[in-house]
Amino acid sequence: MYQINLTSIGQQKQTQSLIGGPAVMISHVAVGDADGNPYVPTGSETVLVNERWRGALAQGQAVTESPGLIRLETYMPASVCGFTIREVGLFDADGDLIAIGALDWPKAALTNGSAEDLRIVINLRVSNPEGFTLQIDPTVAPVTIAQMEDAASSAKSEAVQEAGQAAAEQVSALADQVAAQIAEVRAKAAAAAASIWSDVPVSFGSGRIRAVCGGKLTTTIGSTFVVAGDGGKIMMSTHLNLTAVSDSKFGGSNINSLAMGDDVVVAVGEGGKIATSPTGWVWTARTSGTTTELVEVIHTPDGFFAQGGNNLLHSPDGIAWADINPFGDYIRGIAYGDGELVVCASDSMYYSLDAASSWESVSNFPDYGLLSIAVGHDLIVGVDMYGYVWVTPDHGATWHSPPVETMDATTLYTVRFDGQVFVAASDDGKVLVSPDGFEWASAPIVGSVMGASLSSLAPTPAGWLLGGQSGKLQRTMRIF
Description:
CATH superfamily of the largest domain: YVTN repeat-like/Quinoprotein amine dehydrogenase
CATH topology of the largest domain: Methylamine Dehydrogenase, Chain H
Radius of gyration: 24 Å
Distance between the termini: 14 Å
Helix content: 10-25%
Structural class: mainly beta
Shape: globular
CATH class of the largest domain: Mainly Beta
Number of domains: 3
Largest sheet: 9 strands, mixed
Low-confidence stretches: none
Number of helices: 3
Strand content: 35-45%
CATH architecture of the largest domain: 7 Propeller
């Protein structure tokens, strides 16, 4: 989602509409590559520097909860690709450029595996939304998987109401079959998207990016992205044009992990330090109750959980924290998914189905322990220091170790799940992707990100982010 501003021509036409002139009819969206040179629009532009594509609006509306905001949407065909989108503009029915904005969004070539239309959502801030009209082309929007799912669900419901029970059962079974096929397509497509990585320009410096996160906060418009790491440095942005914050409250202490809730971002790190921010920009120090280094924090429906050493901390809101570790073991990883909280210790594993009120232990455990875990698809997936992936469908009663490229070759430091695919990363720039936890493929990394750590990999609304040594940051595209 991109925020763009009116050009001088757009402002003139808006003024004319305010004094009784014709409304401004927005008809097309255009994108360009700026000839490969990023720039900040001044508003005096009448054309894009190098326009690569122009398309009609698919839909648009005024955002009632944010007066003066118009949200517009279109779809750029998959065949328009192989360049980085650096400029976006809105044109009216007269052919005038009325709004312009800058961004940095790689549009991968089809040979790199991307075959999806790109959904473009634009926020335009105006003083008088009633002075603007939209020329919509309803044929622009493609049929989405979500619409296919809705159609299957509707067919199922209608059959139950209108047909006999036998016919309804047949249609219901067919709808379930379609749903299963769609889920498989989703997972495979998401795995393909997670296998296409590109550099994110970021001025983090020579330190390691140890933590990344991204999501939608109720306190901001659009998505928020935060990266952090060595020396207590934090950078944030709403569109991956990252800017350093002035005071992270960590001093020179390293930040190891980030987690985003509905209305707050939490950072944890050396010396047991914790800080929170409602937007990612202004931070407040919190009291953890420990000076032990905290290495990971996650967000769940029951609040935040952080771990480090023998500490397992819980906070309902990121502000007040308490140590709830009932095990006494050295903790290596925590994860939440499928309604359960899982804790990986040095030589054992525990899971809770009731928000950490009670725990069950797993007696059968991989010989060399696990460094990181993820939960999804009714599986617990872990990775270890020898490059192995471990999968259990039954809380550790049985473990499977599918073949992966990193076996006996490198250390897998982290594994994460985004609701559809698992992604794991090593300390020497290797990334593995799996749609089901059992079949894994290696994802080539352009300009390899070395030195992945426990929390330097995370799914975000804009795709996966991966940080590493020397301030390097990479991302994938996200298609669902």
